[in-house]
Specification:
This protein has 307 residues and is mostly helical. The protein has nine helices and three strands, in the order αααααααββαβα.
């Protein structure tokens, strides 16, 4: 398991512990204190608990070495975990909104004032957890860890909305009890937005999304700096978990022996991997750098020979 994957696993375990404690606290306080917004917040934390489990398992699987059944590795487990977490956010938003509408239509008592203190503590804990896990997601480039971080932020948002709803209900007095449920409904909309925002990049990674142009330019620059490389004709890369796998066509002296060309390709591969840790592997295709040879449609003569 790489250092990046290990950092993501530790972040997921931290989320597991915090969410387990918050689920009991929020649902219990919501039921006792007569606050559906707080109960809805507890349900969202329950999904946070499962999302952290999914992220933890996804990263553990993604960190496995390639084998006979999966010769290209298990990296896709990481964006798959991110997609599952995003879908869970969408489901949570739908469920909370349905129940919030039901509570709005049914008269009930105002929440207990002490539930505000519970929510303040929850907001502080979840916002702190979001910042810590988000930093890990940015450092590792993990879409699953980033999705898990935003799940924590969504929990902080629902807690904040619940706080406002309960506060309005308490200040407004009789007739304002539904403010708590309206807050839960508004929070569900924010959760749904976060879910759709996280689902798109996860699906893109599952569809072999290319990295940003800056990384591709850096790979090209490092490869072209290797002695013996005349130019890089083609360069492609796709995301695999917390890293990328690249394919490039390296042009070199056409008079070079097969042994030397093979050695140069290996040197390019090792240099790129050593310089750019996010690049997990590079497949090198050596090309003779023959000036004046046309390249119809971007296809080299050797491509025709191989087919």
């Amino acid at each position: 398991m790489t250092d990046r994957t290990s950092a993501g696993v530790r972040a997921a375990i931290l989320g597991l512990g915090v969410n387990a404690a918050l689920v009991v606290t929020k649902i219990g306080a919501g039921l006792i204190g007569n606050s559906y917004a707080l109960v809805a917040d507890g349900v969202e934390s329950t999904l946070d608990l499962f999302s952290s489990l999914i992220v933890w398992r996804g990263l553990r699987v993604a960190g496995r070495e390639p084998d006979d059944l999966h010769p290209f590795g298990y990296g896709k487990a990481e964006p798959l975990a991110a997609a599952i977490v995003a879908v869970m956010l969408l489901v949570a938003a739908l469920g909370i909104s349905i129940q919030a509408v039901r509570e709005i239509l049914v008269p009930h008592s105002a929440p207990a004032p002490w539930t505000l203190g519970v929510l303040v503590a929850v907001i502080l804990v979840k916002e702190g957890l979001f910042r810590r896990v988000s930093d890990v997601g940015s450092a590792t480039g993990s879409s699953a860890v980033t999705a898990d971080a935003w799940h924590h932020r969504s929990d902080a948002i629902t807690s904040g909305m619940a706080f406002l709803g309960i506060l309005v209900a308490l200040i407004g007095g009789p007739g304002w009890e539904r403010a708590d449920d309206i807050a839960a409904l508004l929070a569900s909309g924010i959760i749904f937005w976060n879910g759709t925002r996280l689902l798109r990049p996860a699906l893109a990674d599952l569809m072999d999304r290319a990295p940003d142009a800056e990384l591709l330019d850096r790979i090209r620059e490092v490869a072209e700096d290797v002695e013996g490389v005349r130019r890089i004709e083609k360069l492609m890369a796709r995301s695999v978990g917390t890293g990328y796998r690249a394919v490039m066509h390296v042009h070199a002296d056409p008079g070079m022996s097969l042994r030397d060309a093979h050695g140069l390709g290996g040197k390019v591969r090792s240099t790129v991997r050593a310089t750019l840790p996010r690049v997990l592997d590079v497949v090198i295709h050596m090309e003779p750098d023959e000036a004046g040879v046309p390249d119809p449609g971007g296809v080299s003569p050797s491509d025709f020979e191989r087919h």
